[in-house]
Amino acid sequence: MPNLDTTTMLMILATFVIAGIVKGVTGMGLPTVAMGVLGLFMPPVSAAGLLILPSFITNIWQLLAGPDFRAIVKRLWPMMIAIALGTLIGIRLMTSGTGVWTTSALGLCLAAYAAYSLLARPISIPAGLEPKLSPVMGLATGLLTGGTGVFVVPAVPYIQSLGFSRDDLVQALGLSFTVSTVALAAGLASQNAFHVEHLSLSALAVLPALAGMWLGQKIRTIVSPATFRRWFLICLLILGAELFLRAFW
Protein backbone atom coordinates (compact mmCIF):
# COMPACT_ATOMS: atom_id res chain seq x y z
CA MET A 1 0.00 0.00 0.00
CA PRO A 2 1.40 3.45 -0.88
CA ASN A 3 2.67 5.40 2.14
CA LEU A 4 0.16 8.06 3.10
CA ASP A 5 -0.12 10.11 6.26
CA THR A 6 -3.16 9.66 8.49
CA THR A 7 -4.76 12.95 7.47
CA THR A 8 -4.59 12.12 3.76
CA MET A 9 -5.95 8.63 4.38
CA LEU A 10 -8.91 10.01 6.33
CA MET A 11 -9.57 12.56 3.59
CA ILE A 12 -9.59 9.79 0.98
CA LEU A 13 -12.00 7.66 2.99
CA ALA A 14 -14.28 10.64 3.66
CA THR A 15 -14.26 11.47 -0.04
CA PHE A 16 -15.57 8.04 -0.97
CA VAL A 17 -18.25 8.18 1.73
CA ILE A 18 -19.46 11.48 0.24
CA ALA A 19 -19.23 10.12 -3.30
CA GLY A 20 -21.16 7.03 -2.25
CA ILE A 21 -23.90 9.15 -0.68
CA VAL A 22 -24.31 11.07 -3.93
CA LYS A 23 -24.57 7.82 -5.88
CA GLY A 24 -27.00 6.38 -3.36
CA VAL A 25 -29.33 9.35 -3.71
CA THR A 26 -29.00 10.15 -7.41
CA GLY A 27 -27.92 6.80 -8.90
CA MET A 28 -24.71 8.24 -10.32
CA GLY A 29 -21.85 10.58 -9.52
CA LEU A 30 -19.39 8.46 -7.54
CA PRO A 31 -16.41 8.82 -9.93
CA THR A 32 -17.31 12.44 -10.64
CA VAL A 33 -17.40 13.44 -6.99
CA ALA A 34 -14.35 11.35 -6.12
CA MET A 35 -12.25 12.89 -8.90
CA GLY A 36 -13.37 16.40 -8.00
CA VAL A 37 -12.72 16.17 -4.26
CA LEU A 38 -9.52 14.13 -4.55
CA GLY A 39 -8.32 16.66 -7.11
CA LEU A 40 -8.22 19.22 -4.32
CA PHE A 41 -5.25 17.51 -2.68
CA MET A 42 -3.66 15.16 -5.24
CA PRO A 43 -2.95 15.07 -9.00
CA PRO A 44 -5.76 13.67 -11.19
CA VAL A 45 -3.62 10.71 -12.26
CA SER A 46 -3.32 9.62 -8.61
CA ALA A 47 -7.02 10.21 -7.98
CA ALA A 48 -7.94 8.17 -11.05
CA GLY A 49 -6.02 5.19 -9.73
CA LEU A 50 -7.88 5.33 -6.42
CA LEU A 51 -11.35 5.26 -7.91
CA ILE A 52 -10.85 2.18 -10.12
CA LEU A 53 -12.22 -0.50 -7.77
CA PRO A 54 -14.97 1.56 -6.07
CA SER A 55 -16.19 2.72 -9.46
CA PHE A 56 -16.03 -0.75 -11.02
CA ILE A 57 -17.81 -2.53 -8.17
CA THR A 58 -20.63 -0.01 -7.80
CA ASN A 59 -21.19 0.34 -11.54
CA ILE A 60 -20.97 -3.34 -12.46
CA TRP A 61 -23.74 -3.94 -9.92
CA GLN A 62 -25.79 -1.17 -11.54
CA LEU A 63 -25.16 -2.72 -14.96
CA LEU A 64 -25.99 -6.32 -14.10
CA ALA A 65 -29.03 -5.45 -11.97
CA GLY A 66 -30.84 -3.95 -14.96
CA PRO A 67 -33.62 -5.62 -16.94
CA ASP A 68 -32.04 -6.31 -20.34
CA PHE A 69 -28.25 -6.40 -20.44
CA ARG A 70 -27.99 -7.94 -23.92
CA ALA A 71 -30.29 -5.39 -25.55
CA ILE A 72 -28.40 -2.48 -24.00
CA VAL A 73 -25.04 -3.85 -25.17
CA LYS A 74 -26.40 -4.55 -28.65
CA ARG A 75 -27.60 -0.97 -28.96
CA LEU A 76 -24.61 0.81 -27.44
CA TRP A 77 -21.61 -1.35 -28.41
CA PRO A 78 -20.26 1.13 -31.03
CA MET A 79 -20.23 3.85 -28.39
CA MET A 80 -18.56 1.56 -25.84
CA ILE A 81 -15.77 0.59 -28.23
CA ALA A 82 -15.20 4.26 -29.02
CA ILE A 83 -15.07 5.08 -25.29
CA ALA A 84 -12.38 2.45 -24.77
CA LEU A 85 -10.32 3.65 -27.73
CA GLY A 86 -10.69 7.30 -26.80
CA THR A 87 -9.63 6.61 -23.22
CA LEU A 88 -6.49 4.78 -24.32
CA ILE A 89 -5.62 7.75 -26.52
CA GLY A 90 -6.57 10.45 -24.02
CA ILE A 91 -4.73 8.89 -21.10
CA ARG A 92 -1.51 10.41 -22.41
CA LEU A 93 -2.92 13.84 -21.64
CA MET A 94 -3.31 12.93 -17.97
CA THR A 95 -0.06 11.06 -17.49
CA SER A 96 2.19 13.39 -19.47
CA GLY A 97 0.69 16.74 -18.51
CA THR A 98 1.66 18.86 -15.53
CA GLY A 99 -0.44 18.43 -12.42
CA VAL A 100 -1.68 22.02 -12.48
CA TRP A 101 -3.05 21.89 -16.01
CA THR A 102 -4.57 18.43 -15.71
CA THR A 103 -6.29 19.58 -12.52
CA SER A 104 -7.54 22.65 -14.37
CA ALA A 105 -8.89 20.47 -17.19
CA LEU A 106 -10.61 18.28 -14.61
CA GLY A 107 -12.24 21.34 -13.07
CA LEU A 108 -13.41 22.64 -16.43
CA CYS A 109 -14.97 19.29 -17.24
CA LEU A 110 -16.79 19.14 -13.89
CA ALA A 111 -18.02 22.72 -14.13
CA ALA A 112 -19.23 22.26 -17.71
CA TYR A 113 -21.15 19.12 -16.80
CA ALA A 114 -22.73 20.76 -13.75
CA ALA A 115 -23.71 23.89 -15.67
CA TYR A 116 -25.20 21.86 -18.51
CA SER A 117 -27.16 19.66 -16.12
CA LEU A 118 -28.52 22.67 -14.26
CA LEU A 119 -29.44 24.83 -17.25
CA ALA A 120 -30.01 22.70 -20.33
CA ARG A 121 -33.41 21.38 -21.30
CA PRO A 122 -33.80 17.67 -22.06
CA ILE A 123 -33.22 16.82 -25.70
CA SER A 124 -34.19 13.83 -27.81
CA ILE A 125 -31.89 12.38 -30.46
CA PRO A 126 -33.73 11.06 -33.56
CA ALA A 127 -33.25 7.32 -33.98
CA GLY A 128 -31.76 7.81 -37.43
CA LEU A 129 -28.87 9.85 -36.05
CA GLU A 130 -27.94 7.42 -33.28
CA PRO A 131 -25.70 5.10 -35.37
CA LYS A 132 -23.64 8.09 -36.50
CA LEU A 133 -23.55 9.99 -33.22
CA SER A 134 -22.85 7.11 -30.84
CA PRO A 135 -19.23 6.50 -31.94
CA VAL A 136 -18.54 10.24 -31.95
CA MET A 137 -19.98 10.70 -28.45
CA GLY A 138 -18.09 7.63 -27.29
CA LEU A 139 -14.78 8.89 -28.65
CA ALA A 140 -15.30 12.31 -27.05
CA THR A 141 -16.20 10.68 -23.74
CA GLY A 142 -13.14 8.46 -23.92
CA LEU A 143 -10.78 11.34 -24.65
CA LEU A 144 -12.14 13.26 -21.66
CA THR A 145 -12.06 10.14 -19.48
CA GLY A 146 -8.43 9.56 -20.36
CA GLY A 147 -7.51 13.21 -19.98
CA THR A 148 -9.38 14.01 -16.76
CA GLY A 149 -10.72 10.80 -15.20
CA VAL A 150 -14.31 12.08 -15.53
CA PHE A 151 -16.71 9.71 -17.32
CA VAL A 152 -19.84 11.82 -17.63
CA VAL A 153 -19.20 14.24 -20.51
CA PRO A 154 -20.75 13.93 -23.03
CA ALA A 155 -21.87 10.35 -22.31
CA VAL A 156 -24.54 11.09 -19.70
CA PRO A 157 -26.44 13.83 -21.59
CA TYR A 158 -26.21 11.80 -24.79
CA ILE A 159 -27.48 8.53 -23.29
CA GLN A 160 -30.25 10.46 -21.53
CA SER A 161 -31.34 11.77 -24.93
CA LEU A 162 -31.81 8.31 -26.47
CA GLY A 163 -35.27 7.68 -25.06
CA PHE A 164 -34.49 4.80 -22.71
CA SER A 165 -37.02 3.82 -20.07
CA ARG A 166 -35.97 4.65 -16.50
CA ASP A 167 -34.61 1.17 -15.71
CA ASP A 168 -32.91 0.84 -19.09
CA LEU A 169 -31.35 4.28 -18.66
CA VAL A 170 -29.84 3.30 -15.32
CA GLN A 171 -28.45 0.13 -16.89
CA ALA A 172 -27.12 1.98 -19.95
CA LEU A 173 -25.31 4.47 -17.72
CA GLY A 174 -23.93 1.55 -15.71
CA LEU A 175 -22.56 0.05 -18.92
CA SER A 176 -20.93 3.32 -19.94
CA PHE A 177 -19.37 3.87 -16.51
CA THR A 178 -18.14 0.27 -16.29
CA VAL A 179 -16.49 0.40 -19.71
CA SER A 180 -14.96 3.77 -18.85
CA THR A 181 -13.58 2.43 -15.58
CA VAL A 182 -12.00 -0.63 -17.18
CA ALA A 183 -10.58 1.45 -20.02
CA LEU A 184 -9.19 3.99 -17.55
CA ALA A 185 -7.47 1.23 -15.57
CA ALA A 186 -6.01 -0.22 -18.77
CA GLY A 187 -4.86 3.21 -19.90
CA LEU A 188 -3.18 4.01 -16.59
CA ALA A 189 -1.46 0.62 -16.61
CA SER A 190 -0.28 1.14 -20.19
CA GLN A 191 1.43 4.36 -19.10
CA ASN A 192 2.95 2.70 -16.03
CA ALA A 193 0.76 4.89 -13.81
CA PHE A 194 -1.24 2.11 -12.14
CA HIS A 195 0.41 -0.78 -10.33
CA VAL A 196 -0.76 -3.81 -8.40
CA GLU A 197 0.17 -2.19 -5.10
CA HIS A 198 -2.27 0.64 -5.82
CA LEU A 199 -5.11 -1.88 -5.75
CA SER A 200 -4.83 -2.19 -1.97
CA LEU A 201 -5.68 1.46 -1.41
CA SER A 202 -8.34 1.39 -4.12
CA ALA A 203 -9.83 -1.70 -2.45
CA LEU A 204 -9.81 0.09 0.90
CA ALA A 205 -11.96 2.81 -0.65
CA VAL A 206 -14.67 0.30 -1.61
CA LEU A 207 -16.12 -0.06 1.90
CA PRO A 208 -16.62 3.68 2.54
CA ALA A 209 -18.11 4.00 -0.95
CA LEU A 210 -20.61 1.21 -0.23
CA ALA A 211 -21.35 2.67 3.21
CA GLY A 212 -21.99 6.02 1.56
CA MET A 213 -24.34 4.42 -0.96
CA TRP A 214 -26.29 2.83 1.90
CA LEU A 215 -26.55 6.21 3.63
CA GLY A 216 -27.56 7.83 0.37
CA GLN A 217 -30.39 5.36 -0.10
CA LYS A 218 -31.62 6.23 3.40
CA ILE A 219 -31.36 9.95 2.67
CA ARG A 220 -33.31 9.39 -0.55
CA THR A 221 -36.38 8.47 1.52
CA ILE A 222 -36.16 11.75 3.44
CA VAL A 223 -34.92 14.32 0.92
CA SER A 224 -36.28 14.86 -2.57
CA PRO A 225 -33.77 13.36 -5.03
CA ALA A 226 -34.42 16.27 -7.40
CA THR A 227 -33.61 18.83 -4.69
CA PHE A 228 -30.53 16.89 -3.61
CA ARG A 229 -29.36 16.63 -7.22
CA ARG A 230 -29.77 20.37 -7.79
CA TRP A 231 -27.67 21.28 -4.74
CA PHE A 232 -25.15 18.59 -5.64
CA LEU A 233 -24.73 20.12 -9.11
CA ILE A 234 -24.35 23.61 -7.63
CA CYS A 235 -21.61 22.34 -5.32
CA LEU A 236 -20.00 20.49 -8.24
CA LEU A 237 -20.05 23.69 -10.30
CA ILE A 238 -18.28 25.60 -7.52
CA LEU A 239 -15.77 22.78 -7.02
CA GLY A 240 -15.07 22.58 -10.75
CA ALA A 241 -14.57 26.33 -11.00
CA GLU A 242 -12.12 26.28 -8.10
CA LEU A 243 -10.09 23.46 -9.66
CA PHE A 244 -10.11 25.17 -13.06
CA LEU A 245 -8.88 28.49 -11.68
CA ARG A 246 -5.94 26.89 -9.89
CA ALA A 247 -3.89 27.06 -13.09
CA PHE A 248 -4.23 30.84 -13.10
CA TRP A 249 -3.45 31.59 -9.46
TrEMBL record:
Predominant localisation class: membrane
Residue spans crossing the bilayer: 6-25, 37-64, 76-93, 100-119, 139-160, 172-193, 199-216, 228-248
Domain of life according to the entry: Bacteria
Pfam families associated with the record: TauE (PF01925)
Keywords, comma-separated and alphabetical: Cell membrane, Membrane, Transmembrane, Transmembrane helix, Transport
Keyword Metal-binding recorded: no
InterPro entries listed in its UniProt record: TM_pro_TauE-like, TSUP
Subcellular location: Cell membrane
Keyword Transmembrane helix included in the entry's annotation: yes
Membrane topology: Multi-pass membrane protein
GO CC field: plasma membrane
Family: Belongs to the 4-toluene sulfonate uptake permease (TSUP) (TC 2.A.102) family.
Name used for this protein in its record: Probable membrane transporter protein
